[in-house]
Amino acid sequence: MNYLRNATLAFWAAALPLAACAQAPALSTFPVGAATVTVSALTTNLNTVWELVWGPDNFIWMTERYGRISRVDPATGQVQALLTLPDVTPTGESGLLGLALHPQFATSPYVYVVYNYTAAGALKEKLVRYTYSAAAGTLTAPLVLLGGIDAATSHSGSRLLVLADGTLLMTTGDAQQQPQAQNTASLNGKILRLNLDGSIPASNPIPGSPVYTFGHRNPQGLVQLPDGSLYSSEHGPNNDDEINKIEAGRNYGWPTVEGYCNLPAEATFCAANNVREPLTTWTPTIAPAGLVYYNHPAIPAWRGSLLLALLKNASLLQLPLAAGGQSILPSTGYLTTFGRLRAICVSPQGKVYIGTSNRDGRGAPATTDDRILVLENRAYVPTATRPAAALAFDIFPNPAHRQATVQLPVATSRLTVRDLAGRAVRELQPDGTLSAVLDLSGLRAGTYLVHAESAAGRATRKLVVE
């Protein structure tokens, strides 16, 4: 069993012509701590970007609500259209929504998408798996893993997320059928958990059911941290947008509870129904959408924070997590001049990619909208190009919990994690990749040494596991 997962994060920029690697013109800049973040446009003239996922092929995978699935080259901005869904129904807030990739994409090139369609005159939602051909540039062989879910022109969710345990989460909205959020026999107003073949995990809270959590109104952001913690962003009615810490089997209150359990009737319901209160709420509402975790050294002041894309408030919000991740520290807003923001992902180089949603019927699109914006600290120089020892490497986060990333300057023949007694506890041959993810699950808290070996020599870094 390999305890170190190859992340296959090769530095594509080194192989591209200089013209292709030239930096795009800056649209704006803003300070984040001591760093200056530059905003540029990767690509333009899109139509309601709904999802952005950084793929193991080092491309950005994108969905647009009208039904197109594409790969976007992060070096050139070139959009490679793979498929426009033939049966998508893009009406109101419905259409093509979330996307996820199989974690063993090289050998299992499966792409998961969730979208709305029409069946017998009724709007529905389904989760479909496609097979990707890199040679042909196509998505074929659609397999419906879950279908027939009630939908509406609003409140359909739906974000997808593959967890570290190899299962798939899918958020669903209440489809304007509010009581169904509390009905565990219904798939609306839920976070669902499936195996990657569509079967139901034996460890789900309700045997034989895909329901993982319930009592949701319209969750549209979902992220897992390296320590396994799960967080979701959720739209409230005219009050109480939420960030929730997701825990298996918990009830999140809707429609009886809006935000905290702070009214007498809500407190009674919460006590009797295992309700998990949100970490934070917003009234007036801000329309929270895509959610990621940022912990890269490129922008140090953002490390240990959730980054949240906002639709109504048209900005990017930094939500620092307190130690233990059980509360959120005071937030800071950025990126306030580009309209509605919905999709967000982070590259292994610490760049943040954000998709605008100004053509969704509620925005005021500029002539080049919709766009994918790039947020980066252009002064940051990664270890791989610093004038340092040939095999100097970085580990982040450090201290770490369940995972840490090793960023290597050159191809490395072996990585070994040893305890302070010198015993090897993890080993891997990285097969020429420049980055690898250390799976730290099962290790006791303490200090370890990570050894890297290559033709250039050997190097060792200390790693603290919490």
UniProtKB/TrEMBL annotation:
What domain of life is recorded for the organism?
Bacteria
Record's keyword terms, sorted: Signal
- Please list every transmembrane segment annotated in the UniProt record, as residue ranges: none
User: Which protein are we looking at?
Assistant: PQQ-dependent sugar dehydrogenase
Domain Secretion system C-terminal sorting, by residue range, is: 395-465
Is-annotated flag, keyword Methyltransferase? no
Signal sequence: where? 1-22
> Glucose/Sorbosone dehydrogenase domain: from which residue to which, for each copy?
47-362
